[in-house]
From TrEMBL:
SUPFAM superfamilies: Pili subunits. The chain crosses the membrane at residues 21-46. InterPro entries: Bac_GSPG_pilin (IPR000983), N_methyl_site (IPR012902), Pilin-like (IPR045584), T2SS_protein-GspG_C (IPR013545), Type2_sec_GspG (IPR010054). It comes from Acetobacter garciniae. This is Type II secretion system core protein G. GO terms for cellular component: plasma membrane; type II protein secretion system complex. Belongs to the GSP G family. It comes from the Bacteria. Keywords: Cell inner membrane, Cell membrane, Membrane, Methylation, Transmembrane, Transmembrane helix.
Length: 151
């Protein structure tokens, strides 16, 4: 008596159908998970970027302070408010002892947000010879809480 044999391999047309790709539901689940991950990670990354710019601004202000000290050694005083940081790049009128340019860029230095630094001589703060500040991301010098200034 002949025995019937069962094949454990599914017919070809069924196997091909299973290997065609992802279902719409699977794609939607993956997109939702990616959206959640991006939503959680992006704000933290943007906060880090803002903190890094603040740190770069502080370091740049310290370096510019050292450059201003070199200028004072050569000239006998810090640049006036009117001369500003341009005096580090181009010779002010009547400056015989000027040994600049004191900064490498060919223009007045900018903060990490591409705004010009705020320079005042004499200082408006007690105990400082001059004020050298960055207005931060807003670029608004009137917002004194956001100013990053020389120590």
């Amino acid at each position: 008596m002949p025995r019937s044999v069962r094949l454990s391999v599914p017919p070809r047309h069924l196997a091909a159908r299973r290997e065609q790709g992802f279902t719409l539901l699977e794609l939607l689940v993956v997109i939702a998970i990616l959206g959640l991950l991006i939503g959680l990670v992006a704000p933290a990354a943007l906060r880090q970027l803002g903190g890094a710019r603040n740190s770069v601004a502080r370091q740049s202000i310290q370096r510019l302070g050292q450059v201003l000290d070199l200028y004072r050694l050569d000239m006998g005083s810090y640049p006036s408010t009117q001369e500003g940081l341009r005096a580090l790049v181009t010779r002010p009128d009547g400056a015989e002892n000027w040994n600049g340019p004191y900064v490498r860029e060919g223009a007045e230095p900018l903060d990490p947000w591409r705004h010009p630094y705020i320079y005042r001589n004499p200082s408006e703060r007690p105990g400082h010879d001059y004020d050298l500040c960055s207005a931060g991301s807003t670029g608004n010098a009137a917002n004194t809480a956001a100013l990053i200034c020389n120590p």
